[in-house]
């Protein structure tokens, strides 16, 4: 049988021995959330639901470097104590703007799930991300969300805990995104899911650790003008072999959409 190799591989067909041909491997798209999918920081956006949309000085001053999630736990308790209802907080969170082109990109991913798996690895929390994705109508694009677990108790107070403990010296105590990505890939490999490539889309300092571990064929997609792009430029200027992945800075999700379209064609 003569056929286009790419097309043949993408179909789940049988050869003459009746053995299943290998399916085409998927692309894994990894998103950061704050300043990547949404064009702001969800942890500071929530202050818009607080009385006078600000925090008292004693609370602001209680932040200790590297302990952001612990600080957010205090912020959320404070907001609860001000009798802010979860429904109000939710409406405020749903008004956070999406980054240009991201809704189009997520819609494209949701329409191409046979070729693309998609996860979010974020230092925000599970409740905020769930609210925002749900309201946007693009939740079906996302297969899994790895973030600090949050919940709302019977009083209507929201609480948040650290995602995991890890031994990476480069990352904040609650989350090493490299570890999260490694664990995810190991879990997938056990289920015999292997990826042709990874596209990592992010903006922040905590996206640098996972991006450094990307392999040849993968694509690092740092948001133009943000910390991750600067860290990558610095790493490459110090050692031109520091990174194995191709680097594609972006301004709009539409640029990523075009790249992804070409990749899976
Ligand atoms: Mg970010
Ligand atoms: Zn790390």
Automatic annotation (TrEMBL):
Mg(2+) binds at residues 32, 34, 203. Substrate binds at residues 43, 123. One of its GO terms (molecular function) is metal ion binding. Its cofactor is Mg(2+). The active site is at residues 32, 34. InterPro entries: HAD-like_sf (IPR036412), HAD_hydro_PyrdxlP_Pase-like (IPR006384), HAD_sf (IPR023214), Pase_PHOSPHO-typ (IPR016965). Keywords: Hydrolase, Magnesium, Metal-binding. Belongs to the HAD-like hydrolase superfamily. PHOSPHO family. This is Probable phosphatase phospho2. The lineage of its organism: Eukaryota, Metazoa, Chordata, Craniata, Vertebrata.
